[in-house]
Design goal:
The chain is an alpha+beta fold. The protein has helices at about 1-15, 20-30, 35-45, 65-70, 75-80, 90-95, 100-110, 135-145, 150-160, 195-200, 225-240, 255, 290-300, 315-320, 330-340, 385-395, 440, 460-470, 485-490; strands at about 20, 50-60, 90, 110-115, 125, 165-175, 245, 250-255, 320-325, 345-355, 370-380, 400-410, 410-420, 425-435, 450-460. Helix 1 packs across helix 3 and helix 4 (about 65-70) crosses helix 8 (about 135-145). The protein is elongated and about 115 Å long. It starts with a helix and ends in an 8-residue tail after the last helix.
Length: about 500
Amino acid sequence: MADGIQESLLRCVDKADGGVDSQDVAAGLGVDHQVVVGAVKSLQALGEVISAEQRSTKRWELTGEGSEIAEQGSHEARVFDAIPAEGLAQSQLMKLPSGKVGFSKAMSNKWIRLDKNAEGGPRVHRVVESIEDAVRQKLLLVKQGQAGQLEEKEKNELKKRKLLTEVTVKSYWITKGSSFSTTITKQETELTPEMIASGSWRDKNFKPYNFEAMGIIPDCGHLHPLLKVRTQFRQIFLEMGFTEMPTNNFIESSFWNFDSLFQPQQHPARDQHDTFFLSDPALAHQFPQEYLERVQKVHSEGGYGSQGYKYDWKIEEAQKNILRTHTTAVSARMLYRLAQQEVFTPVKYFSIDRVFRNETLDATHLAEFHQIEGVVADYGLTLGDLMGILHQFFTKLGITKLRFKPAYNPYTEPSMEVFSYHEGPKKWVEVGNSGVFRPEMLLPMGLPEGVSVIAWGLSLERPTMIKYGINNIRELVGHKVNLQMVYDSPVCRLDS
């Protein structure tokens, strides 16, 4: 069927003087225009057999209602024909299919009149003996392809009544190509060893290569947007000379997660509505004994210039295993390890990993998220050093407008919330938390008295959502994530 249409099209082109229109070819062959378009595309793929130029023309066509009127007459004419010589009650007339539309049009044409004082209610009478249905005559002209005989005003009136519509018709003007032939010769697409051995390739017609064609994108893995942004944050820390901390222990004891940070055992964050506790194994048993005793003493009795919290500290609370609520537990382990060195050396640590909290799920909160943390330990560090390194860190993220607000944390003093100016909503938004670790946390570890530790942290999800324009965190992490979003997300480039 397809080859027959192609050959018929070639014969039409051969007979025509200068070219043919694909619409005329379709009408002459008695087939749908799209069939001819398919034949044109197939012939174009064979090379320079034909030349086809796409053209667009506008023409008028009858709507469904317009076709009905062309066959049965206009609504107003049908209303006129339905009225007998003695007239017709208006209530009966309105029950006719064309009653409502036809009545108003016939009244405006002054074909009929309404007698409101008639006995039995309003009655409609003819005013003229006969009418000429001009609307039907105009539509018949359009149906016969003679829309050019109508004035633009007449066409627009019919269009306003939704009886006519103007459509754009796309067709091809087809002419002979440089390799025109009325017979179709299949082009070879591959040069085979047999052709070369026999020499038959000399007589073959090869299809030209399309060097502009795009290749097929190979299937491959895709990085999640969180991993892309994480890579950028990690690179910033490495550029600033930081060392990455090992964060591969999601399960942590309450001792390292809370007690070592000088967070009291009665603190609300240690309740079940904020923390996930493990049932098996429920307790941890291995702790640095001397360090544990110093932590117990500073909590219950005070020390190192502090009066402590003055409560009965219990080892049973410290032993409870939990899913860590922050990566600061890892920082505590690393600082304790640093304190065990014979000679203290300044360090800069960072970590980016998952933490877990018993949060109520909503558009901005999940039960697990990623925390970014930076820690610097050295002699004589001050709040000014913390502000300076925060400016350096956030400048590399493309954030230059910063503000600091005093805050409270159990294990830092002083503490500051970090705000940046968001150009989108034109307001200051919180981007992180920071502070100087308390002596009650550092000195029990065994760090020298002159050593200060500054630290700051922020989430990974919030900057990722801002970077990729995601409003609901559940569209970024979890079972509702659209994998197509992962495939299509661009490479992360922070405006440093």
